[in-house]
Design goal:
226 residues; mainly alpha; Cytochrome Bc1 Complex, Chain D, domain 2; 2 domains; three-stranded antiparallel beta sheet; 3 strands; globular
Length: 226
């Protein structure tokens, strides 16, 4: 995953920003890209083929943030879109009900989404080390993160995975970024877990990893920094 932002045409980015906020992109004129991605973030809801679904419903998929999308390929929970352009074309076709854009407008929308900066609280270094001052439990949580080898799937600085992985939640799923995790409930590709702790317990069980209460508490404190 590249960590150098792409060089973009400012005029294209501006044009794409207007399209991103335009409800005319939806087939019925009621939704814009910002409806599900306010400010490029996620609405924390789950959907099935463009309709809202209940968390954990079979086939449901939670909205993912578009911030830092330039370094997030491949796209979607099933990693089925190799490029950002392919991902946006699919979102226009499904989530937006069949909207179509000309080549120049599609290029502009890709440019705008590519301009969205990755989420960063400024609390960890690019390698994941906590930035001082930091509470002792969070600093020790970084040790737990490394000891449990969480970084194999959640690779700093983006804290997302290079390839889909099966962690006991329904087949191989694209590994999402842990950035902003504390503010992103519900959790899981289908929103099945209400809290970070619920998700952590499930992942540890699926992977056969054992952490006692204090170890989990320290890890959760570290995750709040991301």
């Amino acid at each position: 995953m590249a960590e150098v932002p792409p060089r973009l045409d400012n005029d294209l980015v501006q044009r794409g920003g207007l399209l991103f906020m335009n409800p005319g992109l939806s087939a019925d004129g009621t939704r814009s890209c910002t409806t599900c991605h306010p400010g490029g973030r996620a609405d924390d809801r789950v959907w099935i083929e463009g309709r809202e679904a209940a968390p954990g419903e079979p086939g449901a998929r939670r909205t993912r943030s578009l911030r830092g999308a330039w370094r997030s390929a491949p796209y979607f929970w099933d990693a089925s879109a190799p490029t950002l352009e392919a991902a946006i074309e699919r979102m226009l076709r499904v989530e937006m009900g069949g909207a179509r854009l000309g080549p120049r407008d599609l290029e502009a929308l890709v440019a705008y989404v590519s301009s969205l900066t990755p989420f960063d609280r400024g609390r960890v270094e690019p390698d994941g080390t906590p930035v001082e001052p930091v509470i002792l439990s969070a600093r020790r949580g970084w040790d737990e993160f490394r000891r449990a080898r969480c970084g194999l799937c959640h690779v700093p600085p983006s804290f997302q995975g290079p390839i889909p992985a099966d962690v006991g939640s329904g087949g191989a799923i694209d590994v999402p970024s842990l950035r902003g995790l504390a503010d992103r409930a519900p959790y899981g590709h289908d929103g099945r877990w209400k809290t970070v702790e619920d998700a952590l317990l499930a992942k540890l069980a699926a992977l056969g990893l054992k952490l006692d209460f204090d170890q989990r508490l320290r890890l959760l404190e570290y995750l709040k920094l991301l």
